[in-house]
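stage 2 :: seqdesign
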């Protein structure tokens, strides 16, 4: 019967493994930590190679290697879990957008995880179960991530990975079989190979199919067809028609930099997209059925809602002796020239994302819309959504006329002191304003009151009502209350943070627990607080025309990243006023991430300390080898002899202090067959210790010592 002994492995060439691991680390860090690729590559290479060396050192002790695997897996899992909880960024966001927005906390979570995923397979498939082809498996990690984000790896990184793979194959561990035995491929080793391949194949399949990708890429269509997976993030990635529910902040919002449309305007502002009326406990806003019908004959009505014109007409009437009952109050209104109060401004919008939509993006107080090449009707709902009968063409353009009016404090104050309907009726009766103007203002007020009553059918949380009363305590006008609520978010130190992952999506959680979120959170909270303060309010979503996006042609390049949510409250004497608590919020400070640096350094220090302990003998030899060149000839003789004596006593299991130089020579000669080297070392030592003379051979003693160490390792003494 043949004796089938297991083969032994001498271990892979360490330098080739280091290059391979460095190549994998560099490619991976380029994909997910692009802004700090050099630093993170160095850290990950050190961690990955450290994990590799742990298993390399235990290559002949499989039981210890198994427990080392469990220990490493446990430590990496703990580190990953801790930093995931500390971070305000979701894992998916970090993986796919960290190259644009680096987060140190999430990097501290993922780098140990990926280090384990590269370091252990490299050791396993090059030392424990040498299968060069399987060493390609770690390379799939950066390649898949690069494909999913559609960034692609630069040619230099691909070449570096190929070189690393070639080197590790050339230096892979080779099995050594006893000459008297015949090795055959038994079922156990075959099962190990198939099992390993199956597990890694499953992991790769899950990554390909389940992990969402960055949708804003040149390869987007190809990836959609290949994997049939789409990801949806806050604010969407294109202009679409009306939606049923509002956006909700689930955290780690991936903001697209795709330009949706260009807009001309003389200053930054908010433009509206759509509005919602009813708030659900899960954080969603939906449209009330009574306010989704659009009307085509809205332009005349809207053009009559010019508060500057109304204020000027009332003031002129008072100066001319009309409306005597209100004369004293009306004379407090400012005088406005006709050229100013009759003029409207023009905004032009050019859709740029290939959308073919019905939705008209528009500023507040829009009074007219002109769509190039579109002749059908344009509708407007009572809640200020504007849309068309049919899609008005891909990449269409249109112009909008709107009133750009700041709140008229005097007119607002006037309507608080008098009955608005009586004053306007008197003004219409005396010919100061037309009946159309009177009805436009009164109808808007009545519609706002009716809207407020209907939207309060779903009760607001008592805690929110109590908070609203606290914020507006002592204020009498709706205008003052609205501004107080808007500014309160800054006074209460709320934080605007795109990366924060909320535990709940409710306004109560945002107001009373997290105090951190995005515009949808601020808008929802502001809308509910204003309703609780008895102000008719709706929730809106649109875009911000940001001065940072103003191009050389004078147009605002509006991106999906500029999507914005806000509240609009009805103020008698002005109309619907934008309330945006976000503008008073504190921006999330990236410096917070620096607090994890000491923890990262501590983890690295622990790992380096562990490696130093495991390889203490080799480290001691390296330190000794460096230090020997700085010693005098006397020091070299003494140091080399003492190290040689210690090594010989370890072989013979003797006490160094009681071992003579003759015994040292005999042990080295008999055990390692290096009599000449042993004789030189001990002779020089005897001459120094007994005759106080320095042998001229002192300079070559370290070379003799290295031969002894190398032979001891080779003969496994």
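stage 2 :: out
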């Amino acid at each position: 019967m043949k004796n089938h002994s297991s083969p032994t492995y001498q271990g892979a060439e360490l330098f080739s493994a280091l290059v391979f691991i460095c190549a994998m680390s560099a490619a991976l860090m380029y994909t997910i930590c692009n802004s700090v690729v050099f630093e993170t590559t160095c850290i990950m290479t050190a961690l990955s190679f450290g994990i590799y060396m742990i298993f390399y050192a235990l290559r002949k002790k499989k039981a210890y290697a198994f427990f080392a695997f469990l220990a490493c897996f446990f430590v990496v899992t703990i580190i990953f879990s801790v930093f995931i909880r500390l971070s305000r960024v979701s894992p998916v966001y970090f993986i796919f957008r960290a190259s644009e927005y680096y987060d140190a906390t999430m990097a501290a979570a993922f780098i140990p995880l990926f280090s384990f995923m590269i370091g252990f397979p490299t050791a396993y498939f090059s030392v424990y179960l040498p299968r060069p082809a399987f060493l390609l498996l770690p390379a799939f990690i950066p390649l898949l991530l690069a494909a999913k984000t559609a960034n692609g790896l630069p040619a230099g990184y691909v070449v570096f990975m190929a070189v690393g793979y070639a080197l590790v194959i050339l230096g892979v561990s080779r099995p050594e079989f006893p000459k008297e035995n015949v090795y055959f491929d038994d079922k156990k080793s075959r099962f190990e190979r198939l099992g390993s391949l199956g597990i890694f194949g499953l992991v790769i399949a899950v990554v390909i199919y389940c992990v969402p990708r960055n949708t804003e890429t040149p390869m987007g269509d190809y990836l959609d067809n290949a994997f049939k997976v789409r990801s949806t993030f806050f604010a969407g990635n294109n202009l679409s028609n009306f939606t049923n529910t509002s956006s909700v902040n689930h955290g780690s919002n991936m903001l697209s930099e795709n330009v949706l449309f260009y807009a001309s305007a003389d200053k930054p502002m908010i433009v509206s997209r759509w509005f919602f009326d009813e708030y659900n406990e899960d954080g969603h806003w939906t449209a009330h059925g009574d306010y989704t019908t659009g009307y085509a004959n809205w332009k005349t009505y809207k053009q009559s809602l010019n508060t500057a014109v109304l204020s000027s007409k009332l003031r002129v009437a008072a100066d001319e002796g009309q409306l005597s009952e209100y004369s004293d109050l009306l004379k407090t209104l400012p005088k406005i020239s006709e050229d100013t109060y009759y003029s409207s401004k023009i905004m032009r919008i050019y859709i740029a994302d290939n959308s073919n939509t019905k939705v008209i993006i528009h500023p507040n107080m829009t009074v007219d819309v002109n769509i190039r090449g579109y002749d059908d009707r344009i509708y407007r709902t009572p809640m200020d959504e504007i849309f068309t009968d049919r899609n008005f063409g891909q990449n269409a353009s249109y112009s909008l006329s709107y009133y750009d009016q700041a709140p008229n404090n005097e007119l607002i104050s006037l309507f608080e002191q008098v009955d608005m309907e009586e004053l306007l009726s008197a003004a219409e009766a005396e010919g100061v304003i037309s009946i159309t103007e009177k009805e436009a203002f009164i109808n808007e007020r009545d519609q706002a009151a009716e809207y407020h009553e209907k939207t309060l059918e779903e009760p607001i949380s008592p805690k929110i009502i109590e908070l609203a009363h606290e914020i507006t305590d002592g204020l009498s006008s709706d205008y003052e209350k609205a501004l107080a609520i808007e500014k309160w978010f800054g006074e209460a130190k709320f934080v605007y943070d795109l990366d924060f992952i909320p535990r709940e999506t409710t306004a109560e959680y945002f107001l009373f627990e997290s105090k951190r979120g995005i515009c949808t959170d601020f808008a929802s909270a502001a809308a509910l607080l204003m309703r609780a303060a008895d102000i008719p309010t709706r929730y809106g979503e649109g875009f911000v025309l940001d001065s940072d996006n103003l191009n050389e042609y004078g147009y605002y390049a509006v991106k999906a990243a500029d999507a914005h949510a806000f509240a609009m409250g009805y103020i008698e004497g002005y109309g619907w006023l934008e309330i945006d608590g976000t503008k008073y919020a504190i921006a999330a400070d990236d410096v917070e991430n620096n607090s994890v640096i000491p923890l990262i350094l501590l983890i690295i220090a622990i790992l380096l300390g562990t490696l130093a302990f495991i390889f203490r003998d080799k480290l001691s030899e390296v330190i000794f080898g460096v230090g020997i060149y700085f010693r005098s000839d006397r020091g070299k003789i003494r140091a080399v002899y003492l190290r040689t004596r210690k090594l010989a006593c370890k072989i013979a299991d003797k006490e160094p202090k009681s071992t003579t130089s003759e015994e040292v020579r005999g042990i080295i000669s008999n055990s390692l067959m290096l009599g000449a080297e042993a004789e030189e070392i001990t002779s020089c030592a005897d001459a120094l210790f007994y005759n106080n003379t320095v042998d001229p051979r002192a300079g070559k003693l370290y070379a003799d010592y290295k031969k002894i160490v190398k032979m001891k390792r080779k003969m496994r003494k």
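stage 3 :: structure notes
- The chain has three domains: 8-224, 263-579, 615-714.
- The radius of gyration is 38 Å.
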